[in-house]
Amino acid sequence: MADGFLMEVCVDSVESAVSAERGGAGRLELCSSLLEGGLTPSLGLLQVVKQYVKIPVYVMIRPRGGDFLYSDQEVEVMRKDIDLMKSHGADGLVLGALTEDGRVDTELCVEFLAAARPLPVTFHRAFDMVHDPVIALETLISLGFQRVLTSGCDSSALEGLPLIKRIIDQAKGRIIIMPGGGITERNLQRILEGSGAQEFHCSARSSRESAMKFRNPCVTMGAAFSAPEYSLKVADVSKVRTLNAIARNTL
After folding, report:
1. Which of 59, 79, 159, 227 is 20 to 30 Å from the Cα of 196, by its Cα?
2. Contacts (Cβ under 8 Å, ≥6 apart) of 26
3. What is the CA angle 199-139-137, rounded to 5?
């Protein structure tokens, strides 16, 4: 954690979790499928990550990619995942749900928060899909979320910087506003200085070549948007350290 700032790094592997901590991350957001914006990780991943890191691990509760309007069956999965992650060492949870008209699903969120208690809960970037962020922020505050992760309802935190600044001013310390989405060493200082945020969220990843010697170029294991089979995306210690240093100097 940089002086005055907390860096949260989203990770989807043990290697990335260890690298993020070594680089100075103050908290992890543990997911699977970062290419889909992060989905619920396996219990095995949570348990092994907890063996290797000491910083808090917040676990994503998201049963699928796509929108944040959930069916009854998906809600049932989310309930089970909250219970399981809570009982297997999660330090906090990351979740969110919307109604069909783009409002925070207060009924569902009340249920999820009650199930998560006493763990702190972050409302994730479902916030960036709401109809009215000003009203949505007041709803999240009244429900008792600890923080909200947002790119300012835009394609990146840099593009959404004006809104991030406005909702930080609106929040007046009642909830933590954590910018995230496309944060790199090139734009972090501008985002921190322009928003007044005290926490930020990033992946700080780089590509690492697979150790596989035999390779079948005819087969891929996912859809067209998936990562190349023999290129692994992992948190980069040097990138995390660089971001941490930038935050430390942005005072």
Report:
1. 59
2. 1, 6, 7, 8, 55, 56
3. 40
Read off the pLDDT of residues 140-177 as tens digits, 9 standing for 90 and up: 999 999 999 999 999 999 999 999 999 999 999 999 99
Task: Give the full edge-to-edge strand order of the sheet including 121-123.
Answer: 176-179, 147-150, 121-123, 92-95, 57-60, 27-30, 6-11, 199-202
Contact residues for 181 (Cβ-Cβ < 8 A; gap 6+): 125, 128, 150, 151, 155, 156, 157, 160, 201
Beta bridge mates, 98: 104
Identify the residue whose tokens are 């067209």: 224
Write the pLDDT tens digit of every residue in 227-239: 665 677 889 999 9
Task: Give the other-Cβ count within 10 Å of 53's Cβ.
Answer: 19
Query: Residue 144, by phi and psi: left (phi above 0), alpha (psi -120 to 50) or beta?
Result: left
Q: Round to whole Å and give the CA distance between 82 and 113.
A: 10
Q: How many CB atoms lie within 10 A of CB 28?
A: 25
CA atoms within 13 A on the CB side of 69: 7
Q: Would you say 211 and 18 are in contact if contact means Cβ atoms under 8 Å apart?
A: no
Burial (Cβ within 10 Å: 0-12, 13-18, ≥19) of residue 46: buried
Distance CA 139, CA 132 (A): 11
| Rounded Cα–Cα distance for residues 160 and 128 (Å) | 10
Residue 169 tokens read as 């001013």
**Residue for token pair 């859809």:** 223
